[in-house]
Specification:
single chain; 195 residues; alpha+beta; six-stranded antiparallel β-barrel; four-stranded antiparallel β-sheet; 2 helices; 20% helix
Length: 195
Amino acid sequence: MFRRPENKAERLQLRQAFIPKGSRLVPGPAGGAVYTYETAGKCYAIAFRGTAARSEWHHAYKTSAQRDAHIAAFHESLKHSADYKTKKASEKSAWINPAKVGDILVSSWGYDQTNVDFYAVTKVSGKRVWIREIAADYQETGFMSGKTWPAMPIQFTGEETMHVASGYDKTYTVKVGHHYASPETGREHHTSSYA
């Protein structure tokens, strides 16, 4: 019975079963490894990403030049991916949460119907945001549909809950259950009901 490797050492040990005997390692950036070998007049290469036990690809080539070009492209893609991850991590750590107490958040969600919920930010600390659901006003505009907006003055209808804000530039979102809430823009929102 196959057992999934639990750690890096087990994955690297399992990888050895896929590497042909007598092959040569062509190391690359960002943890990529390519092994090359020749058999019956053909050139082969097998590539691994990171510490994966299974190969990313395993190909035969008519010439070593074709193989070398494919290996170079693979290494370039690994480098590009690593650079992108580093950039995104840097942006994420440098992002400053713009949320402030009093912000109104809106969340629109649903499958057979469009539900709209509103929340008020009650506390902010770093990237953590505390919110409470608030009441909404509603105006029917058609059969089982209408428009909604936050009721004023604010009336809390739910308990305070803590969430982690995420975002980019000067905006943010907060995950609430299985949906996301973002700052209200001051417009009315379409809502509909199924039954």
